[in-house]
Specification:
By secondary structure, this protein is α/β, with parallel strands linked by helices. It contains 10 helices and 10 strands.
Length: 315
């Protein structure tokens, strides 16, 4: 059945607005000078400034997977926690593109959040799943279909965090925007896709230090290798993963870390939060103070955004 001219025009307007979303200017690099970093210059790639709602690495990871769907009218299905930056970003992008979205959320209805309220307001259908079901969604490529009663070819699955192989291309563009190629790039790691994308962009230059924000993150080595391979990139090894700077695990924010986030934000007027960027910059400070970098190494940290999730922490 052919769509009516009115529906076709509305769809065209949605596609236009959606295309504009990913035509935003590149994010700036900012140099920090502080005694906290032993007087050393530290650069920050301010991806938190890419877009107000589709923030930071979510902007980059969603860019090409969603642009590839522009000619379709899919229902987007994904997964995340109650404060997920990925859910929030996808709900906004889906609303802009006129696409239905479904979020499979870890936990129970009583674990509601401001993030999920935003997602519902943007039209995302929220379905809660148990922790066992959530693990199955991670481990089984087709497990999501069990939660969608009418799942068919019009439904498109996007993995947790938007961490599909196609996401690496958007992250790799970050490197092309840099005014120089630093000897060291540091980034917070949840799924490993952002780190893998940076490796793809560097093409073997420099080295990347990933700060794992969750416990027992050694498996991220396999995830990074898998993403690079499936996206068609070489098996780059110029990175290291720090797995003991998680401050108790994913979403954990002890008082020391919260205090660090407050002091950092006040000193530099750059907002950070305790789930990702707080752990990144805390680890960077500790590495600097331990003289982990040589004098001629330029260090750049990637601010991956996600400030909406900070609403889950009220001091």
């Amino acid at each position: 059945m052919k769509s009516s001219p009115t529906l076709h025009a509305a769809w065209s307007r949605c596609r236009c607005r959606f295309s504009v979303l990913f035509s935003y200017a590149t994010s700036p690099c900012q140099r920090l000078e502080s005694t906290s970093f032993l007087g050393r210059d530290v650069w920050i790639k301010r991806d938190d400034l890419l877009h107000a709602e589709v923030s930071g690495n979510k902007f980059r990871k969603l860019k090409y997977p969603l642009l590839a769907l522009q000619e379709r009218r899919p229902t987007l299905v994904t997964m995340g926690g109650p404060w997920s930056n990925h859910l929030h970003a996808l709900a906004y992008a889906g609303a802009l593109g006129g696409w239905p979205t479904i979020g499979l959320v870890r936990g129970a209805a009583e674990q509601d959040s401001a993030t999920l309220d935003d997602c519902r307001h943007l039209g995302m259908q929220i379905q809660f799943v148990s922790r066992d079901e959530y693990r199955q969604l991670r481990d089984e490529p087709q497990a999501w279909r069990r939660h969608i009663t009418d799942a068919d070819d019009s439904h498109v699955w996007l993995p947790e965090g938007g961490s599909a192989p196609a996401a690496l291309r958007g992250v790799a563009e970050l490197v092309d925007e840099l005014p120089f190629i630093p000897e060291v790039i540091m980034v917070a790691c949840g799924t490993g896709a952002t780190l893998a994308g940076i490796l793809a962009g560097l093409q073997g230059r420099g080295r990347v230090i990933g700060i794992a924000v969750l416990k027992n993150a050694g498996y991220l080595h396999q995830e990074i290798a898998r993403l690079l391979q499936e996206a068609g990139y070489p098996a780059y090894q110029n990175y290291e993963l720090i797995t003991d700077a998680h401050h108790g695990g994913y979403g954990k924010a002890p008082p020391e870390l919260r205090q660090f986030c407050r002091e950092f934000s006040q000193e530099f007027e750059i907002p950070i939060e305790p789930v990702y960027t707080g752990k990144l910059f805390h680890a960077l400070r500790n590495l600097q103070q331990a003289h982990a970098f040589s004098a001629d190494e330029r260090v750049l940290a990637v601010h991956t955004g996600g400030m909406q999730g900070a609403r889950g922490f009220v001091d």
